[in-house]
Amino acid sequence: MTTLFQKFRDYQISLMLITLLITLESFYSYYLSLNIVYFFVLVVLILQALSKIDKIKKKDFTLPNNFLIFFLIIFLLSIISYIYYKPSFEYKFFFKIAYALIFIYCLAISIKNENLKNILSIVLLIHSGLLIIQFFIFYCFFVQIDFFNLVWGLEQKGAHLPYRFDRTDISSYLDLKRFSGLFNEPGTYCNVIGILSCLLSNIKDLNKFHKIIFCISSLSLLLTFSVYGYLFFIIVLISYTYNYYPKLNFKNLKNNRSNNFIILLIIFFILYFLLHYTFPYFKSRFFDYSYQSGLYLRFFSLIEYFDFLSKDWFLLVFGKGMINETYAFHETKITYDTSLFLYLLARSGAFIFLICFIFSLYLLKFNKPKLCTFSIIMLSKLSLFSPIVLFGLYMIIHNFNENKKKTLSICVPVFNRISLFERLLKSIRCNNPKLIEVIIIDDGSFDDIKSLIDKYKKKNKKITYKYFKQKNAGVAHAMINAYKNSNGIFCIKMDTDDIFVSNGINNILKFLEKNTHIIKKNKKICGAVFGTKLIFKEKKIINQLPNNIVTNFLELKADFGIKFDCKEVVYRDVILEKQIYIPKKIRVVQQSWFVIANFYDCITSKTIVAQKEYLEDGLSSKSAIGYKIKESKILAKMNLIISKSDKYKSRFFRYKAELLTQKYALHSNQKYINHFRDLLFFLLVWPLFKYEQILYKLILNNQYIYL
């Protein structure tokens, strides 16, 4: 028995098995009046929970206790309805409530500290893969495979129709083959896959593998020719867009040609499919032969329900209860098939409607992607007590706080240098760790960065660490990736050769809190800038800023003489909005603060919050001395923006920007030299570029006060 528990503890196989069994909604035995799979789900779930029994803490039951309160409310409302209407008593209701509560408590223990994105992806791949195999094998080779019949011995609804398709005969559209994988009918497939796909879209850190499976499972909904499929496809798409593209930047979309081609190809496929098959099928089914459709029956059952409501005030307030389902159905004409939301309204009345409405408003404010998942569950035709609905509701609330906005996202691009990176991690300390998160982008390191992150996750459980690995693409793309995956109101960039000074993070948070009214009131202010300590060849330099001045990043560099790295704390949305598009071949490029400076100001603070050490192998030293020729095109454009800006007064700074524009223009064959004066000026000053490194060191040695 101990060995069995150990197997369940060490591997996620049991969780994958549980999730797969949870989805098998159609394996119902009418002879036993029971879904056989539900029993196996509970057995495996209890085993999984028992394997983690020694890790259970009191706080782990906080969320299941909320479900206990919810089901107690339903129970009390059903008792009140039973006393008022006095139908015959059915004990099955108590078993349903007991099953749901045991399921929720065991699920809470089983998925504690588990990342379910891989499990969700694999289960979705299994289900959508089986449906796609059915669809294409039949429509390409006219060979019909009924997986549901092979496993359960019952024929799928929709697959048994004789295939007859003739565009001249409207009724032939009704004979299109509709498949549903391991489910009894296409509508059930769409309900289950819609919930799982939307749950997957709610997760922030999906990699390419997960996104491909998400696309496959979402597109498979269209192949079912089900109204649920098309409705849930739209909702899932909205959820994904809200989660990954809260503010669409169409300029970046225009420049990303390879991705645009794939998107256009998918859109073309969907439009072709809709025009040639879906729209004619829906027209035939719901207009020409509407009396044969389930939508027709649902519509008239809804009319009858509203008729009952007009005659019975008690039905509106308390519902008919769930103690006698047969009686409740005859008195309301509403069942799960009409939708879970209407079922709850008919059985538990306005109280449940009020709970759902308040919860929806809460999700609308704090987490729109999860609101999409909740909408799919409420629109589905699944039972409240079915494992997939309980699983979906639990996952909506589970880790809900992780998706709330943090105050500060610390974004760190990493390429090897693990010892320096660990030094940075040690310096990340905060009095209120719930306000911060650390976003680590591993730019194809050979060092084992992930193991180090796992170590600090266990060591500092109150701090949120998010780790992402990408192919080696350079710091520019690492930072773009970091900003996209961040969840903070503000972002700060920290290199591996940076560390926070004592109370550095606390001082940032205090300054932001103190100046919140100024930042929020003035929409032109995008954040704050803090001073740093600099170390260059064992020499310590103070890079101190003027205090509490509203200025911009260009003016700081040009008119205030700030030469070296400061620590900019900027609104995440502003960074993404004003982000410069950088081609994949460009690896090292400075931040787009000068672009932001043309639109926004910042508040300065003289407080030193971080220390930076310029090292020979660091990106900072390389970028300060010069860039590769292949990056010259974008650098010419960047310096052109600086030279044309009216955000500062310094002529020297403008000449320097013009000079750099001409330099990078020549490298990249750009035509920025339009006048003979510009060419003469460039030729006279060009030799100075040979001594960039010497000048750089001289400036470092002489421009600042030594400690």
Proportion of residues in β-strands:
5-15%
> How many domain regions?
2
The number of E-state strands comes to 12
Mean pLDDT: 78
Return residue spans where pLDDT drops below 50 for at least 5 consecutive residues.
1-11, 170-174, 619-629, 689-707
Q: Which structural class should the secondary elements be placed in?
A: alpha/beta
Distance between the termini: 66 Å
Report helical residue fraction.
Answer: 55-70%
Largest sheet: 10 strands, mixed
Whole-number radius of gyration?
31 Å
Describe the structure.
The protein folds into 2 domains: 404 residues, no CATH class; 298 residues, Alpha-Beta Complex (Spore Coat Polysaccharide Biosynthesis Protein SpsA, Chain A). Helix content is 57%, strand content 11%. Strands 3, 4, 5, 6, 7, 8, 9, 10, 11 and 12 form a 10-stranded mixed β-sheet that branches. A two-stranded antiparallel sheet has the order 1-2. Helix 20 links the parallel strand 4 and strand 5.
List keywords for this structure.
707 residues; two-stranded antiparallel sheet; Spore Coat Polysaccharide Biosynthesis Protein SpsA, Chain A; ten-stranded mixed beta sheet; disordered C terminus; elongated; alpha/beta; single chain; disordered N terminus
